[in-house]
Amino acid sequence: QVQLVESGGGLVQPGGSLRLSCAASGSIFSIDPMAWYRQAPGKLRELVATITPGGRTNYADSVRGRFTISRDNAKNTVYLQMNSLKPEDTAVYYCNTSPAGFTWGQGTQVTVSS
User: Fold this and answer.
1) Longest Cα pair distance anywhere in the chain, in angstroms?
2) What pLDDT, on the 0 to 100 scale, is given for residue 26?
3) Which residues in 71-84 are b (16+ Cβ under 10 Å) and which e?
4) What does the pLDDT read at residue 31?
5) pLDDT tens-digit readout, 21-72
6) What mean pLDDT is reported for the chain?
7) Which residues are CB-neighbours of 86 under 8 A, at least 6 positions away?
8) Measured distance CA(59)–CA(52) in Å, rounded
């Protein structure tokens, strides 16, 4: 059973930065495309960014140019560097495979507010 543990969220002012981390148990991590998702209050969970095992990335239009996804296969960890944060980025952020195939973790709350 693969477990996903997200961390790094918090309260940040507009224009600020955060770096999220997701630690995954199990060696299957190295062969799976991974992704970050987010869910804002009252909205459906949406895909934010994806990364293949080889490092190819893709982003939602709303975050392209501001967010960067990366992974360390040796550490079974995927990261999301978020810069120039906006209030509309406020959400709970989750990682999972792409498409989502594992049980969701608890997520990490990101709040962008002045």
Assistant:
1) 41
2) 66
3) bebeebbbbbebee
4) 76
5) 999 886 566 778 999 999 999 999 999 999 998 899 999 999 999 999 999 9
6) 94
7) 14, 112
8) 12
